[in-house]
Amino acid sequence: DGKICFVKIHAPWEVLITYAEVLNIKVPIKENDIPSTVENPLDCMLAPLRLPEKVMHPEPDYFTAPFSKEKQELYLINDESTFFSPSMRNRIVNYILTRCPYGTEEGKKKFGIKRLLNNGTYSAAYPLHDCQYWKKANDPNCDNERYTLYMEWARFLRFYKEQPLDLIRKYYGEKIGIYFAWLGFYTEMLFLAAVVGLICFLYGLFTMDENMSSKEICDPAIGGEIIMCPLCDRECEYWRLNTTCVSSEYSHLFDNVATLFFAIFMGIWVTLFLEFWKRRQAGLKYEWDLVDFEEEQQQLQLRPEYEAKCTQKKKNPVTQEMEPYLPITSQAMRFCISGATVLFWVSLIIASMIAVIVYRLAVYAAFASLMENTQTLQPISGLLTPQLATSVTASCLNFVIIMILNFLYERIAIWITDMEIPRTHMEYENRLTMKMFLFQFVNYYSSCFYVAFFKGKFVGYPGAYTYMFNRWRNEECDPAGCLIELTTQLTIVMAGKQIWGNIQEAIVPWICNWWGRRKARNNPENLYSRWEQDHDLQTFGALGLFYEYLEMVIQFGFITLFVASFPLAPLLALMNNILEIRVDSWKLTTQYRRPVAAKAHSIGVWQEILNGMAILSVVTNAFIVAFTSDMIPRLVYYYAYSENEDSPMSGYINNSLSVFQISDFPDRNKPKLNPENFVICRLVYRDYRYPPDHERRYLHTMQFWHILAAKLAFIIIMEHVVFIVKFFVAWMIPDVPADVKAKIKREKYLTQKILHEYELEKLKERL
């Protein structure tokens, strides 16, 4: 446009070898002579999923050693221009630019490209892509790695193919490479969970007609004769149980014996996933020369922002050099402000959830009176009960509030983390991760926790109902149980988040790029240079990968914490992740500037978060099966209270719905109309109370306490069984495979041997 000036920075050989030594970069010294592992007999069957060898392994496997300028002849330097990979080169250049001084102000040194970007001296700083993504470069020496990645990896039609992880690592660096390795591995493991979940769902589908509870509810002679107490005060009428026939049939899809099996299976699956990922990660650490890469190397690299803002200095006990530091009083004050801000926003989420609960209570009464008194809803009223109608609308409202709070909190979290002035990049990421995860955990899961563990548990009974703020009567579960409502809540929030996430990730950057390049598109390519094309792309940013991990970890929570209520959740996650891999790869390859390469030998603090969620998931699923599903009350009735040997579950519905005498209604609750002059009505939810003619009327029966004891016993037994199996499996599976251990030892031995021989040769020459 004749206005923007570009400065191209090139690092010559001398600069590269100097900083390769500073950054302790490992380079090849000898080709790997360890034979590859035994071929898999299934390889011929998996051939259609494979990519060409040149794409999967763009370089031979070498033994490596840290670079040293004095020992250059030791390394396999065939061509100086290609010896350092593109990701290594852009990492070195970025390292120099972030620490380069450019002036002084009030006696303080000013340095770093980030500061120049912040004050507007430069508008952008980025490494260049090597070519167009849709065609190869004209230069015959260009590797065309971007083109290869697009053709073999970033197109959706390649969804069934493996990922070229070595090429991703070579082009984008280890940090992005390890994210895609983790996402691919997670997706592969989801396949097993999705298959088992689908089988459990199909079991519920095929046994729907055999479910005695829904048979009794739908039977006009049983459910049609059971008169239920009104769903709201004054305005609502009495209604017959068989009007909930359809919803009770559908609830059996998720509330059956297979639910228990699947909850236990997922507790073990999570352990297998985390343990096998550790093994996969250990293999990548070896293959990508990250075995000796320690976070300490990053720890020693201070953030330029930290160096700029901290005026006081003290001696570093490790390097013995003077470096800036933040006084403890300043740190304490910043942490207090940060903690108070996080607490305020978490309180805001809880307040918004209470507001949604109030909405549920207010709208529930409206739906109840509308659906009972309106004939126009007759065709759908069989499926859409007042409880379900309330749940669907509240879930949609809750999802909108979640997305708005997310949008606002992201900016607040970055601001308060910047205010804390973390010392290193790793510290910065870890602090931001914990803040964002805590917030999103409460934001996304609070509504599911409410439906699973609180809804319908504190209702009271006719004449002594529990009210919120002394105004709104607490919600009751559907006669078929609360599990179907938890399934609805989970499906809407989980599916809505995934759809919205993919729209944000794919469509928004594409529209921004299309609009930004509208003028340049008419120019010939020789006028629209590589750096100008890249300048018009979106910025991936230092936190780009952070948001990708956060999205997947929140999804991981949905498929583990509440999976007992929705066996199809892993299948939904699998379908999303197959799309997610290709969307992430497409946007990174085509819509974003090339990110600065960074090293990472693991998924970092996310591993600990996943471990914590895995343990919590066992507890939540045990409570869901015990308190939210109807399994334990059915089992107690089957073994202790059934009176029909031929059909043990017959009479269960009649047994579980307590009787209330209508004349005992206080004026506040009593319906205005009772045209059929009913004498008694039944409580909507499962409750076990003595009838009105009993001396302990409306108090809990002994069956209630038996069921409560059975629920608590079940939780303890299930948790202990799953935890024992989990820890046994974790103990059985070593974190590092035996062949990787052997390769690491072999490489260390060979490296020491080669270095020793080299030193001997040098000594002989000198003598």
From TrEMBL:
Chain ranges of the Anoctamin dimerisation domain: 2-165
InterPro entries: Anoct_dimer, Anoctamin, Anoctamin_TM
Keywords per UniProt: Cell membrane, Glycoprotein, Membrane, Transmembrane, Transmembrane helix
Gene Ontology MF terms in the entry: chloride channel activity; protein dimerization activity
Entry's localization field: Cell membrane; Membrane
Residue spans crossing the bilayer: 179-206, 257-277, 342-367, 387-409, 436-453, 553-574, 704-733
Topological type in the membrane: Multi-pass membrane protein
First-listed, main subcellular location of the protein, grouped into a coarse class: membrane
PANTHER family assigned to the protein according to its UniProt record, in alphabetical order: ANOCTAMIN, ANOCTAMIN-5
Sequence similarity: Belongs to the anoctamin family.
Record's protein name: Anoctamin
